[in-house]
Specification:
six-stranded antiparallel beta sheet
């Protein structure tokens, strides 16, 4: 069990580093294991495609099998299959970037994205994790939960507009519940506003969809249109999403 936990911790560490490969000693220090043990574990994972190394054998990064496993996760999820064509519908109707995300602890993981027809620089992509409190997706899902579940701050700031205190975030979530959807006004990316809608086929909701739009394109009329279209998309997803009967109820 200890070796299995260490393997998972190593893969998560490499994945979190993204395009920054690690050296053997860095990994051994980070996980507090002997250098020889880390080397043996790395060689096993390299042989199975979970870790890759450069031509010198001194740098390590996440391997292609991590991608294959992640793709299998998406392919096997019936809710994702339902949402994908409706993300296409929203994208075509609005011409903006549309996301689906799932709450994962204190973060949101992006499961699907449909890019805007116009240039839009965001930091979200399939498989990316962001703190729930900075995103429209995350705040829509946090609002579905009891306030007591919200941890004490301060919270990480990604922009000067991020809500970093528990009090300001709680006030924002109260507005989300009243309004029926969340708004991220440049809290995760400067120049980008997001609108998030929880998908209530689970209770509490685990998934949400959102629309991201540059501030420069966000007129009152366009905002009204985004909310109307995304509400309609949410209704279609919730009506079409498979129930628990006959399918595993994952936790």
């Amino acid at each position: 069990m200890k070796s299995a936990a260490r393997t998972v911790e190593l893969l998560e560490l490499l994945a979190a580093r993204g395009d920054r490969p690690a050296r053997l000693q860095e990994l051994a220090d980070a996980l507090e294991v002997p250098r020889s043990s880390m080397y043996a574990l790395l060689q096993t994972l390299i042989s199975r495609g979970w870790v890759r190394t450069d031509v010198t054998g001194s740098l390590y990064g996440i391997g292609i099998h991590a991608l294959l496993t992640g793709t299998s996760y998406l392919d096997s999820d019936p809710r994702v299959r339902v949402v994908l064509p409706l993300l296409d519908e929203a994208s075509q109707a609005l011409g903006e970037t549309i996301h689906m995300g799932r709450l994962d602890g204190r973060d949101v993981t992006y499961l699907a994205t449909r890019e805007s027809h116009e240039y839009l620089r965001t930091i979200s992509r399939v498989g990316r994790r962001l703190p729930a409190h900075v995103t429209a997706l995350g705040k829509a899902l946090l609002a579905e939960r009891d306030d007591a579940e919200l941890p004490e701050g301060p919270y990480e700031a990604l922009t000067p507009h991020t809500r970093t205190s528990r009090e300001t975030l709680l006030a924002d979530l109260a507005e989300v519940r009243t309004r029926g959807y969340s708004i991220d006004r440049e809290e995760s990316v400067l120049g980008i506003v997001g609108f998030g809608f929880a998908l209530r086929y689970d209770s509490p909701a685990q998934d949400a969809v959102s629309c991201s739009v540059p501030v420069t394109r966000l007129t009152p009329e366009h905002e009204e249109r985004i909310v109307a279209v995304m509400r309609e998309i949410r209704g279609k997803v919730e009506a079409a999403a498979p129930g628990a009967g006959g399918a595993p109820h994952w936790r």
